[in-house]
Design brief:
DNA polymerase, domain 1; 40% helix; globular
């Protein structure tokens, strides 16, 4: 079974609506899919209807932003009840912080030459979560950056004009909210934080100590060496393994849902990798 347990729609910073995203991934052979938008479950009902219409098994999910040791990590929640009160409270708290951060980013970018940045980001998000990616797109459209990567590098990273530190949930609070909602907590893309080897290991051990469930082993950008290392880290800490493309947009030609490598056999997978529907 072809499984992809990490992707984004217009409910956060993806380019496709939940329904269009499901059609896109179904056309590429995905058989089981999770929608994991940033700090929101808003797109899940639409995505579930579309996934089932295309004959795919659907997993309710989200990707929660957390703070750990002064750094930002992402925890994917899989198999959650999106209506659960504790999860809803955590999402609401994150939404307030995202709104505060977006307002301040917009003000800073307006001073840097991007007119009406906050208002335009809100329009671009169209009711979904406002993320840094929305501001990056506006910077590219305005000719202030060559591409998304350049926008982050010149304006949105630490030390740049549009950088604003966010006060995310504590790691333990996110894990507890996911568990309360009946889900499994997965530490996303462990090689995606710019950590040294030592700091990556510390983060994984802290996540496991907090009763996290799994480590994302295979992503759309990991190489085989990273996947072997992540599998070793998972085994060493008693974590299961997961895989997801972290797909956001068709323009990311290097991220093709349905083409992920298989999880290394050395790691036990999360439940959604079983072959039966």
């Amino acid at each position: 079974m072809i499984v992809d347990l990490h992707m984004h729609s217009t409910a956060s910073d993806g380019a496709l609506s939940p329904a269009d995203l499901m059609a896109y991934v179904a056309a590429r052979g995905v058989e089981r899919v999770a929608l994991t938008d940033h700090d929101t479950v808003q797109g899940l009902p639409e995505a579930r209807r579309a996934a089932e219409a295309h004959g795919m098994a659907f997993v309710d999910g989200l990707e929660m932003s957390v703070a750990w040791q002064g750094r930002t990590l992402h925890i994917v929640g899989l198999g959650v009840d999106p209506t659960h009160t504790q999860l809803g409270a955590a999402i609401a708290e994150l939404g307030v912080e995202r709104t505060r951060r977006a307002t301040e980013i917009g003000q800073r970018l307006a001073r840097a030459g991007l007119a009406e940045a906050t208002e335009r980001a809100e329009q671009l998000a169209d009711g979904g979560q406002i993320t840094r990616a929305h501001f990056a797109r506006l910077l590219v459209e305005a000719g202030l950056a060559r591409n998304m990567g350049d926008a982050f590098k010149r304006y949105l990273r630490m030390g740049r004009p549009g950088h604003v530190r966010a006060n995310w949930l504590a790691m333990q609070d996110a894990i507890d909210a996911i568990h309360a909602a009946g889900g499994q907590a997965v530490l996303a893309h462990p090689f995606g934080y710019g950590f040294t080897h030592a700091w990556r290991r510390r983060a994984i051990h802290a996540f496991a100590a907090g009763r996290g469930d799994a480590l994302e082993i295979v992503t759309g950008v990991t190489d085989t060496q990273q996947e072997r290392q992540a599998a070793q880290d998972a085994r060493a800490t008693g974590l299961l393994g997961s895989a997801g493309s972290d797909f956001h947009a068709p323009s990311q030609f290097w991220l093709v849902p349905g083409r992920l490598r298989a999880l290394p056999t050395a790691v036990s997978p999360v439940a959604w990798f079983r072959t039966e529907p």
